[in-house]
Design a protein that fits this description.
Elements: E1 3-7, H1 11-23, E2 27-31, H2 34-37, E3 46-50, H3 58-68, E4 73-79, H4 83-91, E5 96-100, H5 104-127, H6 136-143, H7 149-161, E6 163-164, H8 166-173, H9 178-190, E7 194-196, E8 202-204, H10 206-218
């Protein structure tokens, strides 16, 4: 059972989310007032934040909870018109975002991915002191980047197929949201784990191959 906080001023959406998550066996608290969320002291595994709210918006609450609940996974709730803002929220530390209108399976998938990321991060913390030289510092810097399950999936695909284009990756991972996939690819590129050839196909860089090798040695796995 996952402990979840929902903050959304749209009562219909908030109650719908709570009903879906309750039916999946999670422990859920729903708040319709974003100001009340600032008073929360209780710990949660996941916090779902509406991006656009009056008085206290989702980005402010994201920054607030990153300070007060640093170990909590934060997912943003967004409409299609604010996808760019949701991607910006991920740059600020949000784990993922859910687009309206959403489906029950989409929500549960996002929850599972967030919990996998938290579990992976805990494994990293336990194992990072035994990472082998000479790549220990480099590996520790990028491990948090590949904690995300979508980025793990991309790296796994590169391990098997060597290289792939954007459309191939999107189809293989069954990701409908192109901006989200673009974000994760850019994160992997910025960390030096992926690179592109002249045909714009993605592949593991030398650094990426070393990171994968270190992870395999630690038996962490990529999923």
């Amino acid at each position: 059972m996952v402990k979840i906080l929902i903050v959304d001023d749209d009562v219909q959406i908030g109650e719908q989310l709570k009903e879906i998550l309750d039916s999946n066996g999670h422990d859920v608290l729903y708040l319709s007032n974003s100001e009340d969320a600032l008073k929360i002291k209780e710990e949660f595994d996941i916090i779902l934040l509406d991006l656009v709210m009056p008085k206290v918006d989702g980005l402010y609450l994201l920054s607030h909870f990153k300070k007060t609940h640093p170990n909590t996974q934060i997912l943003m709730i967004t409409a299609f018109a604010t996808i760019d803002s949701a991607v910006s929220a991920m740059r600020r530390g949000a784990t993922d975002y859910i687009s309206k209108p959403f489906r029950s399976k989409q929500i549960e998938t996002a929850i599972q991915r967030a919990m996998e990321e938290a579990k992976f991060a805990n494994k990293i913390e336990e194992k990072k002191t035994v990472l082998a030289q000479p790549y220990d510092e480099e590996v520790q810097e990028v491990l948090s980047t590949i904690a995300n399950s979508i980025r793990q999936g991309i790296v796994d695909m590169m391990k098997v197929y060597g290289r792939a284009g954007f459309g191939e990756i999107r189809t293989f991972l069954n990701i409908e949201d192109s901006p989200k996939l673009s974000f994760h690819l850019r994160k992997l590129m910025a960390s030096g784990l992926l690179e592109q050839d002249r045909d714009k196909k993605y592949m593991l860089s030398e650094k990426g191959e070393k990171v994968v090798e270190s992870l395999d040695q630690l038996k962490l796995g990529m999923r």
